[in-house]
């Protein structure tokens, strides 16, 4: 193989990598991502709380009232709702800890 062929194979291989997944994972492992993003999104906490309540309410409505999805989807919704509630309570200081 010629040198130009090897360069093109290596270049196309690097271009084909899923950088949208690799770069955030690398930043998360290094700790860079959590420091900057956590500080930048601190003011949006009420919006995230409202969005999570709205999505959980919609999920509970679809799972229980309209009976959409198999049994395990309804189980996941019922397990995740109190876990998310406990997480928000701990995050906002309403949970002892």
List the helices and strands and how they pair.
Elements: H1 3-16, H2 19-30, H3 32-40, H4 45-65, H5 71-91
Q: Helical content, roughly?
A: over 70%
In N-to-C order, the SSE pattern is HHHHH
Structure classification: mainly alpha
Rg measurement, Å = 22 Å
Envelope shape:
flat
Could you report the average pLDDT, rounded to the nearest whole number? 79
Percent strand equals: under 5%
- Count of alpha/pi helices: 5
- Stretches where pLDDT is under 50 for at least 5 consecutive residues are none
The major beta sheet can be summarized as: none
Termini separation = 64 Å
For the secondary structure, the number of strands is 0
Question: Could you explain the architecture of this structure?
Answer:
This protein has 97 residues and is mostly helical. Helices cover 79% and strands 0% of the residues. The protein has helices at residues 3-16, 19-30, 32-40, 45-65, 71-91. α4 (45-65) packs antiparallel against α5. The mean pLDDT is 79.
Offer a concise description of the structure.
The chain has helices at residues 3-16, 19-30, 32-40, 45-65, 71-91. With 97 residues, the chain is mainly alpha-helical.
List key phrases describing it.
97 residues; mainly alpha; 5 helices; 0% strand; flat
